[in-house]
Amino acid sequence: MNIRKIALLFSIVFQPLFMATYLFIILLFVTPSAIGSLFHYRIMLVVFLTTFVLPVISIYVMKLTSTISSIHLTDKDERIFPFFLIAIFYAISAYLMVTKFNISAGINIVFITLAFLALFTAFITIFWKISVHSIGLGGVLGILMALNFRSPDPYFTWLITGWVVLMGATMSSRLLLNVHRPVEVYTGATFGIVFCFLPIYVFV
After folding, report:
1. Do residues 136 and 16 make contact, with C-beta atoms less than 8 angstroms apart?
2. Is 67 strand, coil or helix?
3. How far apart are CA 116 and CA 47, in angstroms?
4. Is the N end or the C end of the chain the one with fewer CB atoms within 10 Å?
5. Angle at 10 (CA atoms; ends 83, 49), nearest 5 degrees
6. pLDDT per residue over 104-125, tens digit each?
7. Which region holds residue 129: left if phi is over 0, alpha if psi is between -120 and 50, else beta?
8. pLDDT > 90? residue 79
């Protein structure tokens, strides 16, 4: 397997739409005490459906109807409408978390933060092709860091370290595949970390 295939594999496995599900799995199986509530598998399914399955189906429909030229959304202008639609799906996920499940105030804030992250990313995309992979990975990192500050847990050191390694590999993959310029990748990561760290640290 050559280096470009490895880079493509990282780009697929750490596709931004997976981030909410990955984060939920981390909190569910590794650090449930960080949120202070029990999670349910059916809620994980809802998260996966609203933040991955529905957005992916929508993107494929857009491709079939020639609204976009590629499911990879490499063109900045073609990203705008899909990204705003994805933000709506994330808002639906947050709405269900708050009104339907209401597991805890902590998980509500996490998903509200992710919804606003998706919305702000869509607005940024109007003007600039920022790296969404970096934003998603950075967002998860920011949340994990904030939870570690608020509720120190021995697992968090390894979690954060491992996530930083995976994040670095994925960001390098985006550069290797020549999808983004370095400034788009690094700015995306910084934006994701800061945007998600602050509300979790302050309100959770």
Report:
1. yes
2. coil
3. 16
4. N
5. 45
6. 888 899 999 999 999 999 999 9
7. beta
8. yes
DSSP state of 40: -
pLDDT of residue 41: 76
- Written as one letter, the residue type at 52 is F
Secondary structure percentages of the chain, helix, strand, coil, to 5:
80, 0, 20
Q: H or E stretch including 36?
A: none
Structure tokens at 166: 């995976």
d(CA 131, CA 30): 28
8 A C-beta contact, residue 23 and residue 51: no
pLDDT given at position 36: 47
- HSE of 19, CA atoms in CB hemisphere, 13 A: 32
Helix axes 54-64, 76-95, angle to 10 degrees: 150
Quote the tokens at residue 89. Answer: 């799906």
Number of H helices and E strands in the chain, helices first, is 9, 0
Dihedral of the alpha carbons of 40, 153, 190, 14, in degrees to the nearest 10: -50
Q: How many Å apart are CA 94 and CA 161, to the nearest integer?
A: 28
